[in-house]
Amino acid sequence: MTLTTRFAPSPTGYLHVGNVRTALHNWLFARKHGGRFLLRLDDTDTERSRAEYADAIRADLTWLGLVPDAEYRQSDRLARYDEQFETLVAAERVYPCFETAEDLDVRRKIQLSRGLPPVYDRAALKLTAEEIAAKQAAGERPHWRFRLNTAAHVYWQDLIRGDSHIDPASLSDPVVRRADGSYLYMLPSVIDDIDMGVTHVVRGEDHVTNSGVQIQMFEALGAKPPAFAHEALITGTEGALSKRLGSAGMAHFREAGIEPVAIAALLARLGTSDAVEPVTSLDPLVEHFDFAHFGRSAARFDEAELRQLNARILHQLDYDDVADRLPQGMDAAAWAVLRPNLETVADAADWWQVIEGPVEPLAGEEDYLALAADTLESLPWEPGVWSALTAALKASTGRKGKDLFLPLRRALTGRDHGPEMAGLVLLIGRDGALERLRARTN
Ligand code: GLU
């Protein structure tokens, strides 16, 4: 059987850092083992699911390079869910319940006031066939629960958490279908995982209890449960994943000039024993991916760390990787000069503007700059012209360090800091450089 993973978002919002991390790990694991990676849109909640969110999810995955091998939508599969649902009803693993939300609420309060866990008391299991028929004849519509087998704990070997188990007796039989006929996520997810040949379910540890329940659903449907990997959640710098990061879609990072590979590089390693490295493609991330490297404690997502990583990655990207996002006219030579000083690709436009001019000259040092212009004019215009110019000025004026260099930089760029002048001056060109050095003396 081909190793198969799936990423199963509900298209009720944009992907945030936590979802993307789950998608990435599913993708990396599948790629590493020559398997398949599926995108499944869990869109049974027709009121909250929207086509625009589904489109945004696809677009974000494409941007990140996590292209699925196939896509499914739960809304296309309702007939199949009905079929399997009926199988479970016939096997008495799913049963009808008629309590109203208010009834259940009152019962829960009573249990809590007695210090008992608020677990559903299975009163509906005691209804006779006649009682059920009478309620339905009277127009009552049931909701349906999956009957857990409470005789033993459910055990599994989690790929991250190791020996895992839950005690079904501590849980309410989960509602799998509402009175209006719609399905809750748990059962359709199991039916899909069986039909789509999913071999590994990789998701956040907030699903651990669901996994225990779902393992019983797999078995009730005569299927072998997949392997599970539950990841520790990530938190923001202020503790819980801050609201902004919890809800900020990939658009936020795109607009901030973050490279998709920087997001992948950070999220592939966050919470693992592997160091975060400035990689320029997903390949090395695939190669080193291993659930055995994941820790059990929550990992901290820090946007400042992402920005730093992004800059380090940018400093290694080739012109061809970024050419379509650079200002018109900016060539490979300019990219090579500017690259070490950029934090985002968009910053290149700012420096390109400096190169093309005009720049606002800064006041001061007019005599020194006039001498620099005359010296430059006498030198051959060639790649080493900057060191020839500064060596000549050092000899003729006795200046060194900041006194030697800073006035030149300020005149040529209008700024105190920036890329290496040796490269920059060549991009500015002979005429431009002379003009700038003389700007305040003309
Ligand atoms: N749609 C579910 C969620 O987003 C899927 C969980 C899963 O099975 O991976 O929570």
TrEMBL record:
HAMAP family, per the entry: Glu_tRNA_synth_type1 (MF_00022)
Binding site for ATP: K243
Source organism (scientific name): Sphingosinicella microcystinivorans
Aminoacyl-tRNA synthetase class I anticodon-binding domain residues: 338-439
Keywords assigned: Aminoacyl-tRNA synthetase, ATP-binding, Cytoplasm, Ligase, Nucleotide-binding, Protein biosynthesis
Residue ranges constituting the Glutamyl/glutaminyl-tRNA synthetase class Ib catalytic domain according to the UniProt record: 3-307
Motif placement: 'HIGH' region: 9-19
Subunit structure: Monomer.
Enzyme Commission numbers on file: 6.1.1.17
Domain of life: Bacteria
Motif extent ('KMSKS' region): 240-244
Gene Ontology molecular function: ATP binding; glutamate-tRNA ligase activity; tRNA binding
Reactions that this protein is recorded to catalyse: tRNA(Glu) + L-glutamate + ATP = L-glutamyl-tRNA(Glu) + AMP + diphosphate
Family: Belongs to the class-I aminoacyl-tRNA synthetase family. Glutamate--tRNA ligase type 1 subfamily.
Entry-linked InterPro entries: aa-tRNA-synth_I_cd-bd, aa-tRNA-synth_I_codon-bd_sub2, aa-tRNA-synth_I_CS, aa_tRNA-synth_I_cd-bd_sf, Glu-tRNA-ligase_bac/mito, Glu/Gln-tRNA-synth, Glu/Gln-tRNA-synth_Ib_cat-dom, GluQ/Sye
Signal peptide feature range: none
Entry annotated with the keyword Nucleotide-binding: yes
Primary site of residence: cytoplasm
Name by which UniProt lists this protein: Glutamate--tRNA ligase
Subcellular location: Cytoplasm
Function: Catalyzes the attachment of glutamate to tRNA(Glu) in a two-step reaction: glutamate is first activated by ATP to form Glu-AMP and then transferred to the acceptor end of tRNA(Glu).
Pfam families for this protein: Anticodon_2, tRNA-synt_1c
TM regions (residue ranges): none
GO BP annotations listed: glutamyl-tRNA aminoacylation
A Gene Ontology term for the protein's cellular component: cytoplasm
